[in-house]
Amino acid sequence: MIVVGYTPDKFGAAALEHGIAEAKFRGTGLKVVNTSTGDSLADPRFADSEAMTELHATLDRSGVEYVLDQAVVSDTVDALLTVMDGDDADVLVIGIRHRSAVGKLLMGSSAQQLLLSCPKPVLAVKPPR
Length: 129
Known about the structure:
The chain is an alpha/beta fold. It contains 5 helices and 5 strands, in the order βαβαβαβααβ. It has helices spanning 10-26, 49-62, 76-84, 101-107, 110-117, and strands at 2-5, 30-36, 66-72, 91-95, 122-125. The model has no long low-confidence stretch (mean pLDDT 88).
C-alpha cells in the first residue's frame, strides 16, 4: 500500500498525484492521511468538507482502491510514522516545500522528520512551479 501524507494545497496535490501513480505502477492500494493537531481554530493543512469532497472525487476517478483517514492527532509526524509501521505500508509519499535553514531551526520540519525517521522508503515530491 502507498501512504500519502495529504494537505489541501499544491503540496498535497503533488503528493496525491504521485501517490496515485505509484499505486497504479505497483498494482496496490492507497491510504491517504490528512491530520491536524487541532492547535488552531482553522488549520490550513486540515481538509474542510469541500476539500474532502474534491479529494474523494479525485480518488474515485483514479480507479485505485483507497482508504481516506482524517483525524485530529497529538502529533502529525507520529501519526504518519505509525501508519508506516504497518506491514501493508510500502512507501510514504509527501509533498515538500523549500524552507530556509533558519525556518527549519525555528519551526522544525515535518518533512525532514519523516525523511529521517520513516522505517520505509519516502518519496518526497514538489509541485510544478
